[in-house]
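Slide 14.
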Amino acid sequence: MTVTTISVGESVAAYSHGKVVGNLLFTSGITSHDPVTGEVRGETIAEQTDYCFELLTAILEAAGCTLADLVQVQVFLNDIVGDFADFNATYSARMPAPFPPRATVGATLPGYRIEMLVTAAIPEVH
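Slide 15: predicted structure.
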């Protein structure tokens, strides 16, 4: 079985952005952290969600995937009560249907409003 590590820039701790095992991609927690500058990008939940999708798309592309290949999404919101509606609106606008299974929970995320991690199935190349 082939295992490949995906990196799309600097990490803020000891982790890779993703790992491909067989035909599956597993990502680490994706935040609005800019892998080039190290800064948190965006202030609102909508802005931070957009930046998460930018980083997620780069990771997926590095593994040969798109958002349509997601098989599961886990989302952590710093303020689930206050941010859920705006997060869900942004998520729904960015994620192609049919939507993958998703869990969204509240969590303490110092400095961030959102963190996402996903699993994707890498399409076979014919």
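Speaker note: The mean pLDDT is 90.
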